[in-house]
Amino acid sequence: MGMQKLHQCCFLLGAVFITLFFVVCWDEVKVGTYLHMASSKDLTHLKRRQAHRKHLIRKLCSANSSLNYRQKSFTFDQIPDSSLNHLIVDDHHRVIYCYVPKVACSNWKRVMFALSQNLKAPDGAPYLDPLDIPLEIIHNSTMHNTFKKLWMRHGRYARPLMDQKLKNYTKFLFVRDPFVRLISAYRDKFVELNEYYYSDFGSMILQRYANISQPPTSAQEAFRAGIRPSFSHFIKYLLDPQTEKEKPFDEHWQQIHRLCHPCQIDYDFIGKLETLDEDTEHLLKILGLDKHIHFPPGYENRTAVDWEQEWFANISLADRRKLYSLYETDFKLFGYDKPETLLNE
Prior knowledge:
- One of its GO terms (biological process) is carbohydrate biosynthetic process.
- The structure is a single chain.
- This protein is mainly alpha-helical.
- It has 2 domains: about 1-65; about 75-180 and about 250-345, no CATH class.
- It is built from 15 helices and 4 strands.
- It has helices at about 1-60, 105-115, 135-140, 145-155, 160-170, 180-190, 195-210, 220-225, 230-240, 240-245, 255-260, 275-285, 310, 315-335, 340-345; strands spanning about 85-90, 95-100, 170-175, 270.
- The protein has a 4-stranded mixed beta sheet.
- β1 (about 85-90) and β2 form a beta hairpin.
- α4 (about 145-155) packs antiparallel against α5, α7 packs across α9 and α9 packs across α14.
- The radius of gyration is 27 Å and the shape is globular.
């Protein structure tokens, strides 16, 4: 009798265990299936996003589109070699990155260094973690393997090499709302103490557009006196026809299409700062590097689109419209809405 009860208890416990095991496993199967479906859905969305961005550029770059700008009809070979300095090449992974200042370029430059493994740390080993690479190296243009450097090394034989790489490598860039990028550039170079930009631009801007005949000789002196170019002065400088007669725009406010030549280079991937996290993850998966490279986190104080109204409050309507005309090609090529609120007040 005791043995029979023992068998019954064992049977019941076994049945309970099997039931629980089935329930837990079934939940895991359902969760796994759901995650796979969600992941597939996200991937489909990201692929469609890229297809839309690339289609828009191809459509606007076509000969019969309404978009017109000076270099649109150029071939790649007609682009001056000096204008190819923003194309960074990693031959090991067959990747070309066109960097755009004020669009997460510091972190993408770090990634390109880590991928190439050409840059050595003080101990002689290559940098493998992007975050380990010092900022002063990141922004030293002579340290990067660019198309311009290829031209300097190979002269007239460089163009066939460039064509081969453009045909066979994965090419990408990241872009940003043009007006927000300008605000970010102004904040970085003129609101923050920057001796180089004060010496090269700030002092001259104060003379021409703030009517200060003898501005302080250094940024530190100017800041102590409470003197700095305002955002309005900066916009006046950009709109002055004399500015580019003297020298081309600095890369931080140069139009993106003039830095990266999207009508001459068929980019495989177009990322945006506004969707940086999703686009970065997607691109690293495309490159097969998502398990090997951790993209550095961005700064919390990114300039936001909803700040535009405040920053442009003291800019006249006429100047806002002129500024839009100056950057209209970037707005259109990269799918940014025309800022109607700013232009139609």
